[in-house]
Design goal:
Number of strands: 16
Number of helices: 6
Bound molecules: magnesium ion
Strand content: 25-35%
CATH architecture: Alpha-Beta Complex
CATH superfamily: Fumarylacetoacetase-like, C-terminal domain
Largest sheet: 6 strands, mixed
CATH class: Alpha Beta
Helix content: 10-25%
Strand order of the largest sheet: 2-1-13-6-7-10
Shape: globular
């Protein structure tokens, strides 16, 4: 089994919330003092070139994030050893039905609905870790219709990749092919039908992007779901 096929082998997506202080503030949240995460279903993966579907009645936000692909099982893994368990990376968008998430927050309900719709985890191909000299110096960007919405660097993470792996693996083991979405920089915003979403990432020492993503946006039609 190879982490290269994480789309099919991974059992879970662990998504970190509020890992960039400017993003925490833009949504009116406090900056966390310890990591927190939620799970997304792997059925929400969307390969590059696909169409992000907006469920009727949902305000869907884009959140561009560095995704860490696990290559070796990590269970109670100290931060000092965490990078040995990383096979590589991908660039992902943690799509979020913000209105449903805000309702869930108010009611104290989980975020599974807001985060888990089909197509809500657009993601690039696997990129081996050798392409990254320093995972805490990676530029990420996302544009909608050619206009820049998000631009950040992983050096601004509150909790770095090794400490995230230590924290998650102290609770649940990370298995080969599992993905950790590491949180989004500021600039999140709504998508609408007809939008074209492009995104890229570049190691800080590289001349140009090593991955580029391209997605259409459409309303989800003929589905059973309707927002209240
Ligand atoms: Mg996110």
């Amino acid at each position: 089994m190879s982490a290269r096929t994480f789309f099919t082998t991974g059992k879970k997506i662990v998504a970190i919330g509020r890992n960039f202080s400017e993003h925490a503030k833009e949504l009116g949240n406090t900056v966390p003092t310890s990591p927190f995460f939620f799970l997304k279903p792997t059925s929400s993966y969307l390969a590059n070139g696909g169409t992000i579907e907006i469920p009727p009645g949902c305000e869907v936000h884009h959140e561009i994030e560095l995704a860490v692909v696990i290559g070796k099982e990590a269970c109670d893994c100290p931060a000092s050893e965490a990078m040995e368990h990383v096979a590589g990376y991908a660039l992902a968008i943690d799509c979020t039905a913000r209105n449903l998430q805000n309702e869930a927050k108010k009611k104290g309900l989980p975020w599974s609905t807001a985060k888990g719709f089909d197509t809500f985890s657009p993601i690039s191909e696997f990129i081996p870790k050798d392409n990254f000299a320093d995972v805490q110096d990676v530029d990420l960007w996302l544009k909608v219709n050619g206009q820049i919405r998000q631009q950040g660097n992983t050096r601004d993470m509150i909790f770095n990749v090794p400490s995230l792996i230590e924290y998650i693996s102290s609770i649940m083991k990370l298995e080969v092919g599992d993905v950790v979405m590491t949180g989004t920089p500021s600039g999140v915003g709504a998508l609408k039908a007809g939008d074209m979403v492009t995104a890229g990432m570049k190691p800080g020492n590289a001349e140009k992007d090593i991955v580029s993503l391209n997605f259409n946006v459409a309303v989800r039609s003929n589905g059973l779901f309707k927002a209240d």
